[in-house]
């Protein structure tokens, strides 16, 4: 199961919630295993998950009729109670015995049609006897006006925003989530290796980008983040691969990562085409030490802000005295920025099971950008890396 | 330019708007050419575009400081006035003359920091002297509460929801948009061809899916939609490629399409591994005639509902008497479902320059799913296909 249900129950109790409703695609998939295609690839389509507090009723999924077939086929889905809404026609062959898969679909299509997503959600809440309780609703996935409409439709309930509850729960990963994140990180590393295979003088950034995404797709990943810049273009934080041709001495910066079984990667590595200058070596070393310092320090109970301070000071001490950053990392999971952010002001405590991107990017217009970014999971005594490579500078024979 | 600015001005005038604000990623990119990475790959990050009505001021882009580098490098961007918000540090090499690209970035980083996205938007509106005017705001891309907050911050303005204005404008494409859609459709066709190359008995759906997405990535597209199902699984509308092995006689249904330079494809084709049954031939022929009937009928001034009726009746007449559908197609563009939907109740008139997916899917549990879906652009006298292949059944030698 993707969902950390113990933590969800704990957070619901702590926030005085009798039930919680997921509305953003990442929270719907996270809490139920249901990946509703339209909701992920467009803005607007609505799917929800209702999870009552322990002992308060059975969880349910609210889905458009046109998307219930995915409930029948997705192994991740652990919730069987479904409320569907909207018209969608599927026929069946008369006189033929249906496979288990087809029968599951037919059963879903045969459920009553609740007309609209909000109708279906209110029915699910009322059927659990939760119409007079405190309901937390992930406010960011709803359409404008829906939140107030739900409160009007459930006059005896108290409806509260609950996006932050989901974000807090998601911060501590289940073993299945860690497995997917590890694979996502590996695919990103393999994709960098494929791009570097063609990194010769005269090759374009665009060609490296195509090789990168082609490998991601070949490994069963979905391309998402593909910042690949060479020479001075590597100083652009969000550089998109362009027509610039690689030259001898170029820095090539990768800040990249796709999605694997819904889970994100976000890693960074640097290669140099030929012999790096002394300054590149020194700066990259300082940035790498910054990441290693953070990794040595991260363990349950440490403040995020303390990790930030230690990493930034290490980089400053090791070779970039003017180093300045907004953050030195962030959580990663089904969203590319999970809790916590590693910033100067975030005093949240690191917990066992959090997965983090730890990074020390440095962007210098007129020269280049350098960056090390690793993915790790927090264990009882420190960190376990999700990487197969280390963050050292890669030196390519031109 | 992606934006149909004449149509936008016309729609602003018709709706009594003095300015309009894009907030959804598709509307931001469409109206300004600016593709703000974080906004596209996550839910929450905010970028906006303010476009005053003709003669009411200069358009502007509101962007996070961490994303302004993309404004300096993206050829599509035609708006030069920028309001940035938030802290993000980028250094520069002292004593080195900067390239034009680096200088553009430096200029953007040197703009005043407006703190928050809403502050920056309100400053942009006030700087145009629009603080007491009627402002249409694309309500779906904002964070909860932002819409009301903008009204409070601009007490003399009247703020109105304007998502539908953007959707109406986007329905009629500019030549550049049509070019991208054509290429997106071709990439989908090429990707189907790559998947079919390995479609032999014993190959899995998953292998076909990998071949499909690999080809899309190789052609510079981003994988999005990849419904590929075989045998009875082809009857699942949103089938995800699984471990089922292809068998002699299988229907293979593709309902697929990636993104190319931000523009979507959505097409469908059917292959049969070996000799199709008489019923498959007859049903597929009926569905194909349904699409062809719609294509013959589509021209400026025709009602969407009339197209729906004609297509459904043609399918019924040609071999599937019980054929029933929610729609027979939809607009396509930077979003996978642009205006108009081709439904029984939609009396909107087809216009020159609209781009449509025209489709007649048929799903039969216990047998298979069949579907033809073509992408076209509406011209003065009819349709121009964006496809390189036709919708005929592909018969594979097993």
TrEMBL record, chains A, B:
Pfam families from the UniProt entry: Creatinase_N (PF01321), Peptidase_M24 (PF00557)
InterPro entries documented for this protein: Creatin/AminoP/Spt16_N, Creatinase/aminopeptidase-like, Creatinase_N, Pept_M24, Peptidase_M24B
User: Which chain positions lie within coiled-coil regions?
Assistant: none
Q: Which residues form the Peptidase M24 domain?
A: 180-379
Q: Where is the Creatinase N-terminal domain?
A: 5-172
Matching SUPFAM superfamilies: Creatinase/aminopeptidase, Creatinase/prolidase N-terminal domain
Mind telling me what this protein is named? Xaa-Pro peptidase family protein
Source organism per UniProt: Paraburkholderia sabiae
